[in-house]
Amino acid sequence: MNPIIMIVDKRAHERLDQIELRLRTFETNLAQNTELTKTIATNTTELVSLVKGAKAGRAFLLWISPVVVAVVAIIAYFKE
User: Which residue has the higher pLDDT, 13 or 19?
Assistant: First the structure.
């Protein structure tokens, strides 16, 4: 029977170690990016709510302005 001869290729092991290191770095960066994306999504949601509120406030002002002008005109008319 012939014994199995193992040939150790040091360069191949070094390349695999480099690949594993790059993969771990990539996974770490991906996790950090995911957390940042979640934070940005939360902030964006808050900004969208703020803009919607501002739009509602603008619509209210546009609706109430003619009413205020009419009331002021009526008061001025009867005051004279």
Answer: 19
